[in-house]
Amino acid sequence: MSNNNLPRIAITAGEPAGIGPDIILMLLQAQQWPAELVIIADPDVLKARAQQLGISLQMRHYTPDSQMKPTRCGEYSILPIACHVPVETGVLNPANADYVLQTLQRATEGCLSGEFAAMVTAPLHKGVINDAGIPFTGHTEFLAELSQAPLPVMMLTADKLRVALATTHVPLHAVSSLITPALLEQVLVILQHDMQQKFGIANPHILVCGLNPHAGESGHLGTEELDVIIPVIQKLQQQGVNLSGPLPADTLFTPRNLQGADAVLAMYHDQGLPVLKHVGFG
């Protein structure tokens, strides 16, 4: 943070052949920001993309000890990291996969050291990173490993809807075995804690999805609710955690059921995020 309390925010440009550079350039053109935005990317990629889009921007090289000032329309600070091979817009190349991870690592290191107040990530392509022979399941897991976080909990927000996930980027067939009493309890405790600490909600009301259709239909459509989810909910309710569930995911996300809820915990990625992205995408 600078003397005038402006935050310095790192933005990683994501997949160099994808839409990340475009999004960043358009944001920089749109308005003045009450922060110093530091773009971590290959400057040649940004210059070429700006020319393709017909956008005129002034670039200045970032140094950690430089005086911070708000990012104005048409200018940006660049922390340069070079791509390994030339970039063709729209053409994925596994040879640049390590470049993408280098930008994430640099931003994360800056956040952990206090150099940056926060980081924002443009989209990357997980498949092309794996095609390069690098095991990678997503931003969540990569950042957790770098920051040595024992259990990351992913939560996305769109307007007033907040959806957290018990499991993240795992195959659907593995979800049931991963949802153990220990994991579910940890995730709910973390979610409650951060709703209190990060969002200032003293007694957050959390809706918990069932895993199976109709939340298991009293065991006729699966027993995970009876064996795992209900016992954990009851245990935490006795400790004062404000939980409701397990609720069928096909009707939980209706306005009536969401009324008065502060967050939803879905059991797996595509149970909760399609609804949230329908509400907030774009």
Give me the secondary-structure category. Answer: alpha/beta
Order of helices and strands: EHEHEEHEHHEEHHEHEHHEH
Largest sheet: 5 strands, parallel
- Amount of helix: 25-40%
Tell me what you see in this structure:
- There is one protein chain.
- The protein is of the alpha/beta class and 282 residues long.
- It is 39% helix and 17% strand.
- It has helices at 20-30, 43-53, 97-113, 126-131, 139-147, 175-178, 181-197, 224-238, 249-252, 255-258, 269-280, and strands at residues 8-12, 36-41, 58-61, 75-80, 118-121, 155-158, 161-165, 206-209, 243-247, 263-266.
- A five-stranded parallel β-sheet has the order 3-4-2-1-5, with helices on both faces.
- A hairpin with a 2-residue loop joins β6 (155-158) and β7 (161-165).
- The longest helix is centred in the middle third of the chain and has 17 residues, at 97-113.
- The two termini are 30 Å apart.
Keywords summarizing the entry:
single chain, 282 residues, alpha/beta, 11 helices, 10 strands, elongated
Quick summary of this structure?
By secondary structure, the protein is of the alpha/beta class. 39% of the residues lie in helices and 17% in strands.
Describe how the helices and strands are arranged.
Layout: E1 8-12, H1 20-30, E2 36-41, H2 43-53, E3 58-61, E4 75-80, H3 97-113, E5 118-121, H4 126-131, H5 139-147, E6 155-158, E7 161-165, H6 175-178, H7 181-197, E8 206-209, H8 224-238, E9 243-247, H9 249-252, H10 255-258, E10 263-266, H11 269-280
Parallel strand pairs: 1-2, 1-5, 2-4, 3-4, 7-10, 8-9, 8-10
Antiparallel strand pairs: 6-7
Helix pairs in contact: 7-8
